[in-house]
């Protein structure tokens, strides 16, 4: 569908329009008085969210990000689905699954009575998805842009055998200086240390998570509320999750960032990822005709 037809069907006067964005990709722009947001149907990905009171965006997007078919956009909230991390079967399929490199369809938009804006995007299985992952499904992402940002990733099993998957909302939060931020809420949780040399060590977190080297950890049995304290941007980011008991905290630090072609060398200072996931011990099984909804709500508070 061309941009004009998409706007005729989904545009909301003075609030939501469909535009051609970076790399010629179709984007959804929202300005509703409560916040502004940018959503990419390529990847089903929120790229920007800025509440009216906020001086800075909630999210980091790399200047070097790829905005092209078949590539993941580095920044915002990439959707990792139907597997989180490397191909679990080692068949060379894309890391973090295919949802983040897939063209999603715009299914619905609406302006809500509380002033927030609703966007629903989806992917249904077809011969291309089944070539990568042989299951029948309907995947929806529901995004609510208001004073807070809510993202719900809903998997419907449309087949007649159970779906087993891992997944995640891989949020890249913008920070003033990664070396100064603290992630709260994980003290006492055990984590798998993916950045340690050799075998994955299991360690218990004491106090807030801070960054002074590469951090790549899968936390288990995490609470539903986490926060990121950022003394440089003078704000606190609140993350409230639904149906997620695992969380990934990631910052590549100097060398890993340098090795990533879609990041500037200094970018590791400008974001931290605190990811709402189901991974490691938390593999999801969805019976036929059932749904599973993974959710995150993000807010910015001044500190
Ligand atoms: O694919 P992206 O966006 O570069 O993110 C990669 C990172 O994603 C994190 O979730 C993983 O824990 C890291 O191991 C990985 O390097």
TrEMBL record:
Q: Which residues form the active site?
A: 170, 275
Write down the SUPFAM superfamilies for this protein, in alphabetical order: Galactose mutarotase-like
Its EC number is: 5.1.3.15
Keyword check for Isomerase, yes or no: yes
The record ties this protein, via PANTHER family, to:
APOSPORY-ASSOCIATED PROTEIN C-RELATED (PTHR11122), GLUCOSE-6-PHOSPHATE 1-EPIMERASE (PTHR11122:SF13)
Alphabetical GO biological process terms: carbohydrate metabolic process
Key words of the record: Isomerase
Annotated InterPro entries: Aldose_1/G6P_1-epimerase, G6P_1-epimerase, Gal_mutarotase_sf_dom, GH-type_carb-bd
Name of this protein:
Putative glucose-6-phosphate 1-epimerase
- One Pfam family this sequence matches: Aldose_epim
**Catalysed reaction equations from the record:** alpha-D-glucose 6-phosphate = beta-D-glucose 6-phosphate
Q: Which GO terms describe its molecular function?
A: carbohydrate binding; glucose-6-phosphate 1-epimerase activity
Domain of life (superkingdom)? Bacteria
Q: Which family does it belong to?
A: Belongs to the glucose-6-phosphate 1-epimerase family.
Q: What class of enzyme is it?
A: isomerase
């Amino acid at each position: 569908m061309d941009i004009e037809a998409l706007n005729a069907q989904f545009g909301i006067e003075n609030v939501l329009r469909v535009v051609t964005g970076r790399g010629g990709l179709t984007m959804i722009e929202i300005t509703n008085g409560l916040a502004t947001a940018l959503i990419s149907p390529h990847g089903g990905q929120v790229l920007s969210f800025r509440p009216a009171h906020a001086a800075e965006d909630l999210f980091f997007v790399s200047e070097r990000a790829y905005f092209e078919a078949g590539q993941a956009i580095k920044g915002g909230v990439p959707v990792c689905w139907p597997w989180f991390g490397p191909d679990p079967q080692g068949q060379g399929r894309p890391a973090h699954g295919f949802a983040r490199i897939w063209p999603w369809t715009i299914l619905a938009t609406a302006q809500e009575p509380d002033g927030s804006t609703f966007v629903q995007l989806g992917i249904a299985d077809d011969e291309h998805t089944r070539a990568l992952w042989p299951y029948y499904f309907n995947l929806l992402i529901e995004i609510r842009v208001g004073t807070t940002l809510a993202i719900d990733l809903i998997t419907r099993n449309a087949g007649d055998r159970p779906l087993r998957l891992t997944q995640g909302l891989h949020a890249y939060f913008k920070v003033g200086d990664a070396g100064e931020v603290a992630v709260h809420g994980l003290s006492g949780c055990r984590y798998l240390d993916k950045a340690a040399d050799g075998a994955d060590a299991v360690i218990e977190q004491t106090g807030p998570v801070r960054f002074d080297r590469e951090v790549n950890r899968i936390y288990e049995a995490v609470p539903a509320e986490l926060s990121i304290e950022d003394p440089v941007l003078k704000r606190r980011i609140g993350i409230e999750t639904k149906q997620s008991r695992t969380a990934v905290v990631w910052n590549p630090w100097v060398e890993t960032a340098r090795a990533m072609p879609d990041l500037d060398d200094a970018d590791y200072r400008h974001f931290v990822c605190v990811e709402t996931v189901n991974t490691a011990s938390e593999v999801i099984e969805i019976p036929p005709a059932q749904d599973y909804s993974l959710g995150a709500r993000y807010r910015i508070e001044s500190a």
